[in-house]
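seq as requested:
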Amino acid sequence: MIFRFYRDAISQASRSIAATILIVGLLLIGFGAVILAAPAIFAFLAAMIFFIAGIGCSITAVKIFWAQRQLDKLTSDDSPAYRRNVQIRVEGHPFDEI
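struct tokens:
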């Protein structure tokens, strides 16, 4: 008599996970072999990726600085246009007695 403590679904899932891990391992071994064979090409590609990422970060920083400058211009006008039709009432506020 054979007792099975797991279902076929769990068995299939563990086999697919093992197959995925095996494929990833073989890909990593392949990438390592290619990098050992041609390190200059991959160093150049890594440098290009860092260069492009640096340009992207710089552009994003300039956009943020520009947007902040525009916001500073809007708030330094001292125009009450944004306060039109706004009334603030504080009645019975618990901190009034302090």
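The chain is about 70% helix and 0% strand.
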